[in-house]
Specification:
This protein has about 400 residues and is mainly α. The protein has helices spanning about 1-10, 35-45, 70-85, 90-100, 100-115, 120-125, 135-145, 150-205, 210-250, 250-260, 265-285, 290-300, 305-320, 325-330, 335-350, 350-410, and strands at about 10-20, 25-30, 50-55. It is flat and about 95 Å long.
Length: about 400
Amino acid sequence: MAAAASQANKAHVFIWEGADRKGKRLKGESRAASIALVRADLRRQGINPLKVKKKSTLFGKRKKKITTKDIAIFSRQLATMMSAGVPLVQAFDIVGRGHENPAMQDLILAIKADVEGGTALAEALKKHPFYFDDLFCSLVYAGEQAGVLEELLHKIATYKEKTESLKGKIKKALFYPVAVVVVAFLVTAIIMIFVIPQFQALFSSFGSDLPAFTKLVVAMSEWMQKWWWAMVIGIVGGVIAVGNIWKRSRKFRHAVDKVLLKTPIIGSIVNKAAIARFARTLATMFAAGVPLVEAMESVAGATGNVVYGEAVLQMREDIATGQSLQLAMKQQNLFPHMVVQMVSIGEESGSIDSMLSKVADFYEEEVDNAVDALSSLLEPLIMVILGTLIGGLVIAMYLPIFQMGSAVMGK
């Protein structure tokens, strides 16, 4: 089994020419681990292989990184194939060979090789934890055990699509201001390093004292001309250092997430997004029949916020001792009263998954509205900041000229 997975991981693209049973010449491409496997596959299709060679990768497709969006699309395609009655192995073959990303093709065909060898789908997915997390594998396992894999794949696909949509909305809220700040920084740096020195040479011929504001800007320009490289190294080094600390220090992530939750405007979006993820993930796992205590561990990692993740793990401990879900949520002081009450009603009526899905729908819509409101608020605010920054530099450069003009007219 392991050898089959290894072979699929090392698959190459081969160009072949052959003839069918009627003698008609055919051409095409196939992905396999060796030329022998390509020839065998062609013969099974009734094609006599005449020429098979490995495709040159010099100008071929470069392997792109596999994204969570690729996994979401794969989940939906696989669910759709199984709904249409296509056998699992054949579904993997169709989806894998039809994918545009060669890296994703290799991943899907590696899983197909494991499944063909008799490995359960959940076990085959667990061999690729970077792409298929515990939540994904747990849901697939539950579907296989209950004999409802097709239904569970649809739930996974819906969950992944909703999660990606939520992430997209948050990225949309952050992209515009970040892009504008970066452009503003670049424009300011260009003015400071290349434009202001030209004015400085002009000012030196005036023979009079410059205004204090102009002196300040000129001093900043001189510093940037001298130390721009140190500033670039500092920024790049700072970003890399923060990234490494973020990956290695849970305390740092907790501190940052805690600050984010309390930040005006942005904190509201982060809170609502975390609640939406919590509700959507728990609803999906509960509907799949995963035990509540077991589900909470996967839910903790899916909230996207360390503070909420730790709260969910504490809730897991409370539930394991016999507490109800709504009481465990109430004790964390993180979840709004409406959410706790919805869960309480769900527990009493035996429809927790349905209630949690409604909570998720509500908060996903809230996030969408909050993102639109934030974008509307940020646009004029950013324009004011940019205008003040660039306008201030321009005024600082023209103040000496205005001052000299006033002195000439006074004479």
